[in-house]
């Protein structure tokens, strides 16, 4: 059966997957964004629905002081004896921890912190019921290594000391360790090479969980390094066996801007079939390569083409699950009433380092999209209220309405590295409401405003300047948001649709 990648587009990196009966659940990283660790559900591994988040309170997910691309790193989701477990790292506050729940749609426990360093933790239950916790970290010589301990997954208390079990398979930055057991072997799968264009997935195995581990003779089992094409940086994978006995691998990959080694919509989640060869080693996709269109024995119902268009008129008593905030939201700055969401902008703006700006945003899932928002309310002097293409506090484009003395103006602002400049400004006859719009393709964000029923172009911003490779050590992706600074605005509706 044919299907298309990515299975979960936009900023959805570091996928981890588990199965319960005929249901599959997948989680991804969220870094400095809130709520943390989205949970997606599928019956066929291709059509995924966002159903919940693992971390929804400030005590579960403290992000105060988290730098851009700080916060929550790679999660792992597992199911054991009627309980779901998710383990991850808050690199800004607390380190490695585990949360659990019996109800995947309900609230998860408070974090149980684990006294083992490193990042990218994972859980494994052996046949005797013992739970193992594995992560990467540094040995005494400062070499990145893989460490293992036994613990109680409910409390995080260790049953045995942390032990070094592997140095990886020779690539730099061995990370994202996952342990599986099959045919009497413990398989240790790793991401190596760094989560850039040299990214790869490797495998090793041992008869004892503590090793010694032998390397797969055809490592890397997955990589697009040194391979030209529209899919790059494949790695950071997890595997699952479906109810029919077939094996599948989920991984992250990127879609660079055409003819550029740059990407801006984030690392996304992809799917590949996996088979085991006669020597008991995994073979992924097409000899370690994946594609936009693949074929495999998918479980469940036939995949459907589903519209990813998004519309919110704020008629519910709860915000749509797709909305995200930058760090922990200041909740009194968001007033949801029937048919409107009031944003109360404070001193923290979009460019405030480690700030808590008043903004709600959704992931940009494709290159060619448009976003429109209708805003209404009084504008105070110095207030800035509008929409944005937001990567982080140092990289974003914003169109907003403001007031200077007695004049209302529509402005286009660009924040690129340490340059913050208003590149376009026009007087408008503001009568208490306005429609703002951005249109994106792989090269440009183009910004518009409505004047007497006519949409007028104000200016453009290059997508390449929001790219991960331009803005340094970053791991997220572009969001499309509505914001307010230094004043309140009511959001009547937001539309995001693919073009």
Summed up:
This protein is 0% helix and 49% strand.
How would you portray this structure in words?
The chain is mainly β and 499 residues long. It is built from no helices and 39 strands. It has strands at residues 2-4, 16-20, 23-27, 33-34, 36-42, 49-55, 76-80, 83-90, 95-101, 112-113, 122-125, 131-138, 144-150, 163-166, 175-182, 185-192, 200-206, 214-215, 222-223, 232-241, 247-254, 268-276, 282-284, 293-295, 310-312, 325-326, 334-337, 340-344, 358-363, 369-376, 384-392, 395-404, 407-416, 419-428, 433-440, 444-451, 454-462, 479-485, 488-498. Strand 31 (384-392) and strand 32 (395-404) form a beta hairpin. The radius of gyration is 23 Å and the shape is globular.
Q: What keywords describe this structure?
A:
single chain, 499 residues, mainly beta, 8-stranded antiparallel beta sheet, 6-stranded antiparallel beta sheet
């Amino acid at each position: 059966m044919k299907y298309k990648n990515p299975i979960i587009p936009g900023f959805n990196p570091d996928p981890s997957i588990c199965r319960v009966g005929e249901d599959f659940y997948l989680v991804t990283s969220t870094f400095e964004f809130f709520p943390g660790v989205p949970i997606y559900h599928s019956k066929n591994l291709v059509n995924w629905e966002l159903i919940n988040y693992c971390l929804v309170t400030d005590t579960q997910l403290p992000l105060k002081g988290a730098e851009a691309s700080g916060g929550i790193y790679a999660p792992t989701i597992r199911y054991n004896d009627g309980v779901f477990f998710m383990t991850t790292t808050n690199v800004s506050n607390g380190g490695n921890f585990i949360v659990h729940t019996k109800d995947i749609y309900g609230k998860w426990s408070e974090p149980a912190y684990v006294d083992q360093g490193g990042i990218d933790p994972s859980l494994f239950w052996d046949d005797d019921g013992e739970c193992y916790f594995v992560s990467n970290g540094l040995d005494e010589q400062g070499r990145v290594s893989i460490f293992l301990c036994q613990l109680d997954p409910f409390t995080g208390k260790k049953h045995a000391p942390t032990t070094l079990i592997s140095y990886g398979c020779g690539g730099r930055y061995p990370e994202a360790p996952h342990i599986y057991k099959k045919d009497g072997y413990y398989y240790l799968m790793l991401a190596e090479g760094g989560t850039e264009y040299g990214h790869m997935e490797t495998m090793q195995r041992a008869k004892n969980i503590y090793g010694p581990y032998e390397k797969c003779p055809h490592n890397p089992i997955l990589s697009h390094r040194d391979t030209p094409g529209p899919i790059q940086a494949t790695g950071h994978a997890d595997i699952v066996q479906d109810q029919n006995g077939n094996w599948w691998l989920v991984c992250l990959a990127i879609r660079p801007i055409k003819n550029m080694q740059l990407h801006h919509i984030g690392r996304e989640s992809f799917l590949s079939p996996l088979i085991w060869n006669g020597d008991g080693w995994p073979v992924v996709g097409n000899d370690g390569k994946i594609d936009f269109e693949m074929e495999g024995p998918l479980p469940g119902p036939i995949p459907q083409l589903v519209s990813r268009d998004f519309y919110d008129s704020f008629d519910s008593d709860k915000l749509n699950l797709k909305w995200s905030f930058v760090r922990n939201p200041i909740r009194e700055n968001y007033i949801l009433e029937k048919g409107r969401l009031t944003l109360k902008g404070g001193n923290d703006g979009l460019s405030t380092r480690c700030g808590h700006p008043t903004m709600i945003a959704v992931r940009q899932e494709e290159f060619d999209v448009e976003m429109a928002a209708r805003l209404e309310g009084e504008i105070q002097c110095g207030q800035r209220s509008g929409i944005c293409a937001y990567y982080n506090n140092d990289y974003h484009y914003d169109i907003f309405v403001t007031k200077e003395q007695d004049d209302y103006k529509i402005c286009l602002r660009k924040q690129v590295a340490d340059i913050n400049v208003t590149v376009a400004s026009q007087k408008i006859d503001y009568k208490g409401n306005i429609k703002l719009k951005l249109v994106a393709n792989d090269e440009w964000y183009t910004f518009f405003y409505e004047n007497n029923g006519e949409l007028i172009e104000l200016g453009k911003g290059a997508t390449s300047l929001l790219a991960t490779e331009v803005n340094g050590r970053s791991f997220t992706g572009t969001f499309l948001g509505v914001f307010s600074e230094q004043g309140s605005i009511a959001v009547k509706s937001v539309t995001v649709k693919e073009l």
